[in-house]
Design brief:
By secondary structure, this protein is mainly α. The protein has a single domain, classed as Up-down Bundle (Growth Hormone, Chain: A). The relative contact order is 0.13.
């Protein structure tokens, strides 16, 4: 059964090789743990100005902290997460969370900016709970419940990220900024404890000896990139997620600089409280899944709604934000709402496209999405500093959001190739839910053939 962190409590063990049932409680638990594990990447955002003062550097210097955090997570997606297709997901998740917490401890203790930056990258490299549980929840959900369950588990990370900003701003305003990181360490230990006690054991998707996995590791990584050439819908969905997350991350990165300067001159606590605005929107995430995405049935229609919500938010925030705080408030609400609708719809669109490779499909999708976060963090900061502040950065965001419309229009919901609208656009044809059911039948058939061959 394993020792230490690899030991499995009796109530979490597999019984007769039956896949554990996905309950609402377990979905909420995965949302919570995924959310606060992902929060590691965002505690620094509201306190970048404080970090710059303490480490005696410029805003550009501390902007490397969130940039390296995003780079670490992107490396995790590319180099580590594909292995989740071959290891038991409970043990895989617990080991990764433990390593992330150990490197986070180093961030709490160091006084050297270079070491802090290196540890930021290493901690993010093993921050992967959300990337394990999202494909797991999608895999275990019935088609009729998939949008609702994905909305819950998809809300968790964003909700955790926003709460991280709130807590970070408040704690740094009244105490030393290092207490923010000690708080983050305590939350990681809580996440580790909850997963250890409640996460069921799951059979590996592809069970192989460790030696075989090591030998085929380069081919495993190569198989991720082959997915882009085999599945046009994966490329389209990934690019849509790229645009959405680029704009959202750009907003939160530059918001700190806008609100900490004239005419607002807000402190860390007030800036952190802006996260409450987005958090209140995200509480409606499951309702978006149940009453918007599921009834529309065709995910691309929901994607269009998500892009439109984001576009309105960016336009209002960009041109009102320099005069009135209502601009950034409206932008936060609409950006988060648009992101939730687009993310869940895009994730449903790629469900079941490659049977037996759910984590690698998720990796292919999330790599592009997190490259968007990386681009949003770095490029928005550069545009803000080089071209005159909030409005140029916002106009850049408007252009990226508009690109989402072009990506949506380039390929219709029933198109099998790379470009075009063959099959039309009407809802009277086969629905997205039907496509998912077909994919699941194909997956089941493939698994039966595999068993027969054995």
């Amino acid at each position: 059964m394993g020792y230490g962190i690899l030991w499995t409590p009796p109530w979490c063990r597999l019984k007769d090789c039956e896949t554990p049932r996905l309950t609402t409680w377990l979905t909420i638990l995965y949302a919570f743990c995924g959310g606060f594990n992902s929060a590691n990447l965002f505690y620094s955002h509201p306190i970048l100005n404080v970090l710059a003062e303490d480490f005696h550097t410029t805003q550009s210097g501390v902007a490397n902290i969130p940039t390296l955090a995003q780079a670490g997570e992107a490396s995790c997606l590319l180099l580590i997460l594909p292995l989740a297709d071959f290891f038991p997901r409970r043990q895989f998740t617990l080991v990764m969370t433990t390593l992330a917490a150990l490197f986070w401890l180093g961030q709490c203790l160091t006084n050297n900016l270079t070491i802090f930056l290196v540890l930021t990258y290493l901690s993010a490299l093993f921050t992967c709970v959300v990337h394990v549980v999202i494909p797991l929840v999608s895999e275990l959900s019935s088609p009729s419940q998939r949008a609702f369950n994905l909305s819950i588990v998809g809300t968790g990370p964003t909700f955790g990220i926003l709460l991280a900003r709130i807590l970070s701003g408040i704690v740094a305003n009244y105490t030393n900024w290092r207490n923010v990181y000690w708080m983050g360490l305590g939350i990681q230990i809580l996440v580790l404890g909850l997963l250890f006690v409640f996460m069921p054991d799951y059979e590996p998707i592809n069970k192989r000896p460790l030696r075989d996995i090591a030998k085929t590791y380069p081919r495993i990584l190569l198989s991720i990139f082959r997915l882009y050439f085999r599945h046009p819908v994966l490329v389209q969905s990934s690019l849509l997620a790229f645009t959405s997350f680029t704009v959202l991350t750009a907003y939160w990165t530059t918001l700190t600089f806008l609100l900490s300067q004239a005419p607002y001159n807000y402190g860390s606590a007030a800036i952190g409280l802006f996260g409450l605005i987005g958090a209140s929107t995200l509480l409606l995430g499951p309702l978006f899944g149940k009453f918007v995405i599921t009834p529309l049935r065709v995910p691309l229609y929901s994607v269009f709604i998500g892009i439109t919500l984001s576009m309105v938010g960016v336009v209002v925030g960009t041109f009102v934000g320099v005069h009135n705080v209502a601009g950034p408030v409206i932008e936060a609400v609409l950006l988060d709402a648009g992101l939730m609708v687009l993310f869940v719809a895009a994730r449903i669109n790629i469900e079941g496209i490659e049977p037996g490779s759910s984590n690698r499909v998720n990796t292919a999708f999330m790599i592009v999405m997190h490259l968007g976060q990386l681009v949003g963090t770095k490029a928005a900061n550069d545009v803000y500093e080089l071209y005159g502040g909030w409005i140029p950065a916002g106009c850049w965001g408007i252009g990226i959001t508009a690109a989402g419309y072009l990506i949506t229009a380039a390929r219709g919901p029933y198109e099998k190739g790379w470009l075009g609208w063959s099959g039309g656009w009407g809802r009277g044809r086969k629905s997205a839910e039907d496509h998912v059911e077909d994919a699941e039948e194909q997956s089941f058939g493939a698994s039966e053939v595999h068993k027969t061959e054995k």
